[in-house]
Design a protein that fits this description.
This protein has nine helices and nine strands. By secondary structure, it is an alpha/beta fold. The strands form two sheets. The chain has a five-stranded parallel β-sheet, sandwiched between helices. A four-stranded parallel β-sheet has the order 7-8-6-9, with helices on one face.
């Protein structure tokens, strides 16, 4: 606890390095780890940003900044700020430098058809060489250097999670979303399951005004043999798929479960699957269309 601010020490990670070495993937990875992230912060604004961080009114404890340096003038501001940080007791400062071989960087620029920011009218290699001269001192001041030459984006994500994740922190989560096809398909889902083949409580008069959150409705949905068989097969599929998504580097999987109106079957099954997997994964529940029908009772 800092005596000056009366709050816990703030973690600040400054992400920098060679253009094309993976800073975008890195900042996304820190965001998945719960860091407050700012991409491409000009070094001239760093002192002001640090003042805002120091304000006792905010509760930000973990911050990651991408600082992309384009000129030596920018370095003067950055080094002044870093020197000042070394005297502060309320913040833990860490520089992560991403590096890559010249050959690989050239290959990446060709793949993306981009020009190097320091060689817009010259060969990419010229810009890379100029940038190396500029960032050489900063590389020496870095606490950690990651060479991304032989890394795919998911490899870099796994490396950052391995190094910077807090103990037992799991950044992979599953968002289960119920919806009704009559209101439109769930366009941002990774997996969509259509459960309209199951018996529909809508046609039972006493269940029609209720939703899948009601025990009578869920009992109706789960009493059928086809429902129990579907649950068994879909859980088996999820148990196979989820580790593969994690291995690929995905931080969140959105599973949409749809019925006709998004009131009964999809709601009951969304609740069931989220609760069933809660011991193994971080799960969240959203019922997109549960309140879209007038007169519905939960």
């Amino acid at each position: 606890m800092s005596e000056q601010t009366g709050k816990h020490e703030t973690k600040l990670v400054i992400i920098t390095g060679m253009s094309g070495a993976g800073k975008t993937v890195a900042i996304q990875s820190f965001e998945d780890l719960g860091y407050y992230c700012v991409d491409n912060l000009p070094p001239t604004l760093l002192p002001k940003f640090l003042e805002l961080m120091k304000d006792q009114a905010n509760n930000i404890q973990k911050v990651a900044l991408v600082i992309d340096l384009r000129s030596r003038e920018f370095f003067d501001f950055l080094y002044q700020s870093l020197d000042k940080l070394s005297t502060e007791n309320w913040i833990q400062e860490h520089i992560l430098f991403l590096d890559c071989t010249d050959e690989k960087l050239i290959s990446r620029y060709k793949e993306t058809r981009r020009t190097h920011p320091l060689a817009t009218e010259d060969l990419p290699l010229k810009g890379i060489q100029r940038e190396r001269e500029i960032v050489d001192e900063l590389r020496g001041r870095s606490q950690r250097i990651i060479d991304t030459t032989d890394m795919k984006p998911r490899d870099l994500r796994e490396k950052i999670v391995d190094v910077y994740a807090e103990e037992k922190q799991d950044v992979f989560s599953i968002q289960f979303v119920s919806f009704g096809f009559k209101h439109g398909i769930l366009i941002d889902a990774d997996v969509v399951i259509d459960v309209r083949f199951l018996p529909n409580p809508h046609y039972v008069p006493q269940l029609q005004p209720l939703t899948g959150l009601n025990s009578d409705v869920s009992s109706y949905v789960f009493k059928w043999t086809e429902t129990r068989l579907f649950i068994e097969k879909f859980l088996d599929l999820l148990e196979f798929m989820l580790p593969q998504y994690k291995k690929e580097g995905k931080s969140q999987l959105i599973v949409g479960i749809g019925c006709t109106g998004g009131q009964h079957r999809s709601v009951a099954l969304t609740e069931y699957f989220a609760n069933e997997l809660a011991d193994q994964y971080i799960t969240h529940i959203t019922h997109r269309d549960i309140d879209k029908r007038k007169g519905t009772t939960k």
